[in-house]
């Protein structure tokens, strides 16, 4: 069933179990278990926070000690050591102070690249095209059918430039190959049509695509990020909200797909006369909204709508790319008939930017452009990450350990059915729901006092985002502490 594939996947060509899980022991240099010595945050973190907050508005949980952090463990400046199941907002691919990353950054040649910080959009070094080809454009890395890549500084920049590409292509089609008119050139400088046409990008309720101006207009998950800020009146479609367990609600969830897709088509029609939709952006998994998954069938039909309307499907893989799901790209699970038009990336990919098909390459240089065009340091780190993923077969490892963790969480769900529900995930993008936000906060507090760092998202969800070297050994430590905390919750 299509809906079953949202949570579970068949590992094709899996090798022997012994090759694809970490040994039942800590990794070299790691602590044997997490521990806390103080309240969290501890006194040193509290004092530093009070000083720092005088110069910058901050929302700090505690200050890390990155000299002492190692592997799956994050140390803080008060001597506490956490099993980190969040990994710097899911951006650390290989954990803390991994030898391959440190080795890449200590290389003399790489240090000269870092020290001279080239403006890649104008003066890239001799090695830059080769570095891009050997990292982002490797056949096993680049999404199939997308041979072009645009590098950017950050996740939100990736979104901003991707939607610019969509707008440009839409306008080019309208212009039928003709050059810009004088009126277009002049009006664009004053933010007026026809130079700045009234176009829109359709996004989804609960989506999150960044906090810069255009990206924020596409994000709909927390009011605090948007209130008081002017925005753009672009269309917002409902995203499927499934009932769990999936195998018991297959009919209802298919109806939910139909409802949402019908709304997408209605919105496109509604906006056609006033602010035509030039593209649709959607996350492969809605991570900030509470790890909301949609079925492969939903994405297949969404792509059909885009093709019928001749507008791009922009798949946001900023949080899901880089091996987090057990494949480099989460959309590989959807088995789309043709590639997406644009795929954005960042986080576990280290570098940021987007892939696109050749037809979206702008005809004139500098149309989609920034001076930096990304950060060479991130490409050097990505190079080390990709070599490690291949050498240690980490994607297979993520599939194996991810399934193990999901099975154990499902067991806890049966045991603590009044507290845990809707266990779900792909690879190491895993989540479960609590009865309410208050209960979630209590559980997260208990976990942190026992040395486990997790994160909340949505209204009542706890999400897990371990790094790719997280093993069964670490999963068992987490599960034991989680069980203890569930038993300690009031009225359990």
Automatic annotation (TrEMBL):
One of the record's GO cellular component terms: mitochondrion
Enzymatic reactions: 4-aminobutanoate + 2-oxoglutarate = succinate semialdehyde + L-glutamate
One GO biological process term: gamma-aminobutyric acid catabolic process
One Pfam family of this chain: Aminotran_3
CDD domains in the cross-refs: OAT_like
GO molecular function, one term: 4-aminobutyrate:2-oxoglutarate transaminase activity
CC cofactor: pyridoxal 5'-phosphate
Entry keyword set: Aminotransferase, Pyridoxal phosphate, Transferase
Similarity-based family: Belongs to the class-III pyridoxal-phosphate-dependent aminotransferase family.
Protein's name according to its UniProt entry: 4-aminobutyrate aminotransferase, mitochondrial
Organism field: Tetragonisca angustula
């Amino acid at each position: 069933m299509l809906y079953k594939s949202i949570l579970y996947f068949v590992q094709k060509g899996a090798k022997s179990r012994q090759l694809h899980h970490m040994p039942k022991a800590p990794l070299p240099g790691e602590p044997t278990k997490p521990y806390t010595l103080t309240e969290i945050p501890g006194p040193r973190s509290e004092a530093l926070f009070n000083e720092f907050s005088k110069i910058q508005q901050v929302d700090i949980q505690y200050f890390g000690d990155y000299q002492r952090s190692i592997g799956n463990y994050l140390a803080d400046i008060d001597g506490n050591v956490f099993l980190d199941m969040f990994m710097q907002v899911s951006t650390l691919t290989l954990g803390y102070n991994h030898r391959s990353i440190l080795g890449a950054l200590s290389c003399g040649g790489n240090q000269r690249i870092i020290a001279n910080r080239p403006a890649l959009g104008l003066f890239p070094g001799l090695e830059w095209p080769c570095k891009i080809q050997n990292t982002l454009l490797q056949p096993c890395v680049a999404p199939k059918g997308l041979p072009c890549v645009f590098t950017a500084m950050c996740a939100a920049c990736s979104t901003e430039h991707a939607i610019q590409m969509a707008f440009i292509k839409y306008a080019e089609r309208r212009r039928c190959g003709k050059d810009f008119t004088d009126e277009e050139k002049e009006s664009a400088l004053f933010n007026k049509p026809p130079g700045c046409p009234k176009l829109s990008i359709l996004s989804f309720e609960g989506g999150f695509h960044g906090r810069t101006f255009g990206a924020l207009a596409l994000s709909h998950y927390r009011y605090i990020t948007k209130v008081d800020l002017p925005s753009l009146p672009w269309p917002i479609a409902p995203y499927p909200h499934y009932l769990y367990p999936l195998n018991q609600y297959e009919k209802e969830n298919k109806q939910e797909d139909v409802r949402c897709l019908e709304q997408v088509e209605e919105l496109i029609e509604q906006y056609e006369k006033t602010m035509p939709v030039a593209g649709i952006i959607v996350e492969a998994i809605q991570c900030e909204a509470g790890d909301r998954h949609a079925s492969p069938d939903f994405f297949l039909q969404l792509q059909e709508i885009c093709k019928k309307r001749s507008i791009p499907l922009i798949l946001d893989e900023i949080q899901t790319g880089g091996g987090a799901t057990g494949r480099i790209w989460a959309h590989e699970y959807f088995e789309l008939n043709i590639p997406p038009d644009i795929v954005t990336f960042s986080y576990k990919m280290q570098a940021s930017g987007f892939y696109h098909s050749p037809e979206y390459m702008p005809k004139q240089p500098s149309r989609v452009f920034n001076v930096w065009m990304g950060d060479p340091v991130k490409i050097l780190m990505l190079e080390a990450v990709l070599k490690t993923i291949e050498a240690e077969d980490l994607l297979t490892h993520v599939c194996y350990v991810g399934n193990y963790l999901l099975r154990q969480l499902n067991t806890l769900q049966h045991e603590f059915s009044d507290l845990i529900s809707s266990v779900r995930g792909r690879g190491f993008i895993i989540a479960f729901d609590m009865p309410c936000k208050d209960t979630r906060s209590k559980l997260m507090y208990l976990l942190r006092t026992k040395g486990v760092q997790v994160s909340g998202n949505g209204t009542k969800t706890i999400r897990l985002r371990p790094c790719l070297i997280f093993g069964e050994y670490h999963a068992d430590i987490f599960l034991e502490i989680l069980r203890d905390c569930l038993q300690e919750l009031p009225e359990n």
